[in-house]
Specification:
Chain B: This is Ferredoxin. The complex is a heterodimer. By secondary structure, chain A is of the alpha/beta class. Classes of the chains: A alpha/beta, B alpha+beta.
Chain lengths: 418, 63
């Protein structure tokens, strides 16, 4: 069972706990009475003041890209046409549970954030986009308890790696398949029905709602992260809320992964990091500088008994299986990466395999309609960069972890929603 | 002017490369990639022919 832990400094408002319910994270569903008691749905008297505050504290989107929330809000507000706002709760990363947890347990927080986003952008139409049945039930019930004044529709999609990508979200809401489209235009320019559309991750909206009700704590609220921590040593996975800049080593120690040798960052998006991972901190810019990415905040730790080649191969095989199969380069590229990594693991790769992996990891990023191909390329690039010895050792001795064909279902990385 | 490729439309026909080899490359699977996206306002040699050559309209020029 996945644990739920708030690791914020005492007194700092967070998303996992509420003063009404005491220090324990939510077990049930927060109802309207509970949400009003913590200050929810407070009137927004000056929309620009909240927007200024979001800009001043530097809140960044929590879907994966880490784009500044205020810049996106302003772009949608200022684009011609009547804006649309979308709460994006479809978390495609198998190792992340935060968005579904928020929707299932604190649906009012998301609806309140969506209402505030609508007020700040001038939208009269909102959507909650999700795939999880329990999340849908909670959101529908919460919306019936208190309509927000905004017309809100719940749009259900199927759970898939690319289904939460912003153009896939727009396409699905318009009645199409949940598959990405080429950019430009991005949804902020032309989204649902051609209207400027804010596609905001549900954690981002939840942080906006808490910043509105606890304005004195805005800096801490904007900087904190929900992270999903998992690893393969039999330790229970955990959903945790931590302060900005938290060290990965300290977090790993608390979650039972202190002995880890490496970490897979950002779900499957931020690559594998070996020696030196203990110096990494939860910070978009610093992880980027280290060749990684924070992404959705999912961290998968590798222990000494785990083979990094097997982990990379399984990740690449999962991404190949999850390709939307729209872009030829993604179909061919992910299959080539997964196939070559499989051969490397079995000691069956030719002399040029490492050169091909290096070349693909340079040439493939940015070429698909979404980031899936980039994720697969980064897995290969970081495996070669951080584990050259472990990769080379597969030529000389049989690796039991790499013997079987890699499963394409991402089971190693999948975390159950608490 | 910008040369944009919709990779969901590229089927790897390869017809776009010949008119504008400096701007467009083909990878080992035959799919196109744009080498130079930012073009002068009055365009570049062969770019309009390359855009027109794609049977699936995967390339476009945006002013």
């Amino acid at each position: 069972m996945t644990g739920v832990h708030s690791l914020l400094p005492e007194g700092q408002p967070g998303l996992l706990v509420s003063p009404v319910f005491g220090p324990e994270p939510y077990r049930g569903v927060e109802d309207l009475v509970g949400y009003l008691a913590v200050g929810g749905y407070a009137p927004l008297t000056a929309r620009d003041r909240l927007l200024d505050r979001i800009a001043a504290v530097g809140l960044r989107g929590r879907g994966g890209a880490g784009f500044p929330a205020a810049v996106k809000l302003c772009a949608v507000r200022d684009a011609p046409g009547r804006p649309v706002v979308v709460a994006n709760g479809e978390e495609g990363e198998p190792g992340s549970v935060k968005d579904r947890w928020l929707l299932r347990h604190r649906p009012h927080l998301i609806l309140d954030g969506l209402r505030l986003a609508a007020a700040m952008t001038g939208a009269e139409r909102g959507f909650v986009y999700l795939s999880d049945a329990l999340a849908e039930q909670a959101v529908r019930h919460a919306h019936a308890e208190r309509p927000t004044g905004l017309r809100v529709d719940v749009v259900r999609t199927h759970h898939a790696y690319v289904a939460g990508e912003e153009t896939a979200v727009v396409r699905r809401i318009e009645g199409g398949p949940a598959l990405p489209t080429a950019k430009p235009p991005r949804p902020f320019e032309a989204g649902v029905g051609g209207a400027p559309t804010l596609v905001a991750n549900v954690e981002t909206l939840a942080r906006i709602a808490v910043m509105h009700m606890c304005s004195d704590a805005a800096v801490g609220v904007a900087g904190a992260h929900l992270v999903t921590v998992s690893g393969s040593d039999g330790c229970a996975p955990a959903l945790a809320e931590v302060s900005a800049g938290t060290g990965l080593k300290g977090l790993a120690d608390l979650c039972g992964h202190g002995g880890a040798e490496a970490v897979l960052l950002g779900g499957l998006f931020g690559g594998l990091h070996g020696a030196g991972w203990t110096d990494l901190r939860l910070d978009h810019d610093r992880l980027k500088a280290a060749g990684g990415a924070l992404g959705c905040g999912a961290l998968h730790f590798l222990h000494p008994e785990d083979c990094p080649v097997a982990v990379a191969t399984e990740a690449a095989a999962y991404l190949a299986a999850q390709s939307a199969r729209q872009c030829g380069v993604c179909v061919s590229g992910t299959e080539a990466l997964a196939g070559t990594l499989t051969a490397v693991g079995r000691g069956a790769a030719d002399d040029a395999a490492a050169d091909r992996l290096h070349r693909w990891s340079r040439q493939l990023p940015g070429r698909g309609a979404c980031g899936l191909l980039d994720a697969a390329a980064r897995i290969a690039a970081t495996l070669l960069a951080h584990f050259p010895g472990r990769v080379a050792a597969h030529r000389d001795a049989t690796c039991p972890a790499c013997a079987d064909p890699p499963p394409g279902d991402g089971r190693r990385f999948t975390v159950p929603v608490p | 002017m910008k040369l944009l490729l919709d990779s969901t439309r590229c089927q790897g026909y390869g017809l776009c490369q010949e008119p504008a080899p400096e701007l467009i490359g083909l990878d080992e699977w035959g799919y196109a990639h744009v080498r130079v996206s930012e073009l002068p306002a009055d365009g570049a040699d062969g770019v309009e022919a390359a855009v027109a050559a794609c049977p699936n309209s995967a390339l476009r020029l945006v002013k």
